[in-house]
Structure prediction request, 92 residues.
Amino acid sequence: MTTTNEIADKIAAEHSLSKAQSKAVVEAVFASIAAAATSGAETSIPGFGKFKVKDTPEREARNPGTGATIKVAAAKKLTFQPAKSLKDALNK
Prediction:
């Protein structure tokens, strides 16, 4: 697993930045993606992929402990669709 600190450390080393500066950049990128998602916008990063907000409808489910039927409320979720170049790199 890679953490934001590890990403920031790598950026700092490759671009002659301090760790604090690179961590601020990484956090700003993620904050921008989150802000776009909360407003319902799609974020596209060429060569990497797209983050999209998807609506999930209300549905019925079962409580595995009791077997009772419950309703799961409609919600929104964030999905990621990798770019073709990323998919190709993963499947080499």
